[in-house]
């Protein structure tokens, strides 16, 4: 019966291999959790940053933009927008000035979200904190 | 159809195809918004269209998987479904919840939807692919649990085959890993880290178990090859899927704040991820070449072979293209990702659902296969959709390469929008391919209504 | 193996010993390690000084002892296969037991080494060299455990008289896997501990 390539053998490889690598994933996740505080600077997550993330999510910004490269690819990367635009004033002015009926011409349109001043400040705080995450030098340049 | 209760699969398949049409229509809207930015603005902004496009994709694939499971499990277990009534009830709950969610996306601003669905109490919305309101997410879990209960009870009282065990593991995994969508910490890095436990461990993990078992089931039926051989292949393929895919998740952990050793783990293991897809292609062709009978349903055989090839191209080759960390550094979050996403989802998941529908739908309508005329039309739709998708992928890849060059590599990098303006031509070409895809899809639907001479199901 | 023969005929001349599935598995393992070794070489070429400097802090003595331990255990496994080919189940069990024992020695020595490194505050994120050192050795460590489990299962079956001079694929299968674990260490040790 030698050299038999049996189904039970294949099944054992499946169960053994999956369990092995899932455990490896758990171990690596454990290590990642130990290292993350040094990279995400969570001590700087103020209530404003937390609220800003909520504003980000409630308006589905990820539906057009990318954040650290993840999201839609329709509009600019915002992980480094705080640095690219030299602070929060530009960001706030930009969001506030989107016309509700759109800009003329066939440019890509950003909706008017009617954010309050508080929400704008929170959003900027969130984007500023995001820009300070250690992302292994990504993106390659300031254009994102 | 050997068991009466398999009939519950039919509404699932019909709903899947219906939602598929919706997904493609919104895809075309978005494609047009890429080149005509003010199209339908402000009625349907891009972010809404995209949310509808991706959510419809997920939901129609889930309908397809569920229909497939309700069709396969009774036949594999050689017993009637535990509760056909529950399966039907689950169908309506899922359809109504899904439809209400889409209507919600389209009729009220997203922030309003979030407010009315108590997102403030437990924020889970506004993250890519997981945009559903909390109630919908809970609904998905309940629907999944009801289905799992129904199917598990059926398998427990009947024959236990490897195919049904793998399918059940895939569906249980789908439910378990979806639970990570309820975890949304205020720390963005943690949020992203565990967001992938739903997204990656779905599409590059447990969904592939479902894909493998659907393909294996259809191949057994249409080729008549010995079950032992097919199930052995199934186990080898899914073993390689998880061995490479679980740590392969590292390719999402390069630039989101996670430790840099993930660049090595992710690169090494995801470089191996094409192997199971290659095995799948070899498997499909090998089984068809060794067939012991000529099944009258030629279209289903074509879909099965197509799934092998396109999954390998879309998920395997296009995935490998940008998976190595030094490459991904430049391609991360560009149209290259979009190209890969389109072909991988179509080649692996959309096609496998159409494979099972192609095989099962005639059976559910009381015949072994559709008429010759209907099959010819279905095969035309196969080629139109598949070739259109190849071109969509090629055009997006071209756009992506240019985007990377203009915006990230060249010595005088352009801003995002300036770079986008340079690649408009490719977005137009992509949109034209999309229209051809829609024509293919329309032909596909027409093929269900073409009459002609058919044989009774055995 | 009482299950069905599926695709391949048995006892063809020139086929490798043991179950074919384990060879498929071994191939996959060697591929994964091979890519990791290549990645190591690539990373080292880009950062020779860091690698050489960090390498100084590794415990080469314990690595060398472990090499001897594993090679000896492989020899014991060879004796176990030789014994079962003569139909000597009892001797086979003894040799396998000795091999598993040496596997245990390897693990203990390795644990001391890991303990020293972790106490020194070294982790995956210390630098690229330590990332590779820890990943490769822990990955290999887990393979040694898996190999011991396989050998133990074979030993149990041999103890129950499950193998004969004619039918002992299981022993050859387990032996093949163990030799692979040994082989990986023989590459890993000079690559990570010695070459500079």
Question: Would you kindly provide a written description of the structure presented here, covering whatever features stand out?
Answer:
The complex is a heterotrimer of chains A (144), B (458) and C (196). Chain A has 144 residues and is mainly α. In chain A, a hairpin with a 2-residue loop joins strand 1 and strand 2. Chain B folds into two domains: 160 residues, Four Helix Bundle (Hemerythrin (Met), subunit A) (Up-down Bundle); 291 residues, Cytochrome C Oxidase, Chain A, CATH 1.20.210.10. In chain B, 76% of the residues lie in helices and 0% in strands. In chain B, helix 2 packs parallel to helix 13, helix 8 runs antiparallel to helix 10 and helix 11 runs antiparallel to helix 13. Chain B is globular and about 65 Å long. By secondary structure, chain C is mostly helical. Chain C has one domain: Four Helix Bundle (Hemerythrin (Met), subunit A), CATH 1.20.120. In chain C, helix 4 packs antiparallel against helix 5 and helix 5 packs antiparallel against helix 6.
Ordered list of secondary-structure elements with their pairings:
The complex is a heterotrimer of chains A (144), B (458) and C (196).
Chain A (H helix, E strand, L loop, with lengths): L6 H34 L6 H12 L7 E2 L2 E2 L9 H4 L3 H9 L20 H15 L13
Antiparallel strand pairs in A: 1-2
Helix pairs in contact in A: 2-5, 4-5
Chain B lengths: L8 H27 L10 H32 L6 H24 L2 H7 L17 H24 L4 H17 L9 H36 L3 H22 L12 H11 L2 H16 L8 H24 L3 H7 L3 H30 L7 H38 L6 H7 L1 H24 L11
Chain C lengths: L19 H26 L2 H8 L4 H26 L3 H31 L8 H32 L9 H26 L2
Number of strands of chain B: 0
Class per helix and strand makeup of chain C: mainly alpha
For the largest interface, the chains and their residue counts are: A-B, 75 and 81 residues
Radius of gyration over C-alpha positions of chain C, nearest whole angstrom: 19 Å
What is the CA-based Rg of chain B, rounded?
22 Å
Helix content of chain C: over 70%
> Quick check: average pLDDT of chain C?
88
Tell me the name of the CATH class of chain C.
Answer: Mainly Alpha
Specify the overall morphology of chain B. globular
- Major beta sheet summary of chain B: none
User: End-to-end distance of chain C, in Å?
Assistant: 47 Å
Count of DSSP-assigned helices of chain C: 6
By CATH, the superfamily of the largest domain in chain B comes out as Cytochrome c oxidase-like, subunit I domain
Element order of chain B: H for helix, E for strand? HHHHHHHHHHHHHHHH
Strand content of chain B: under 5%
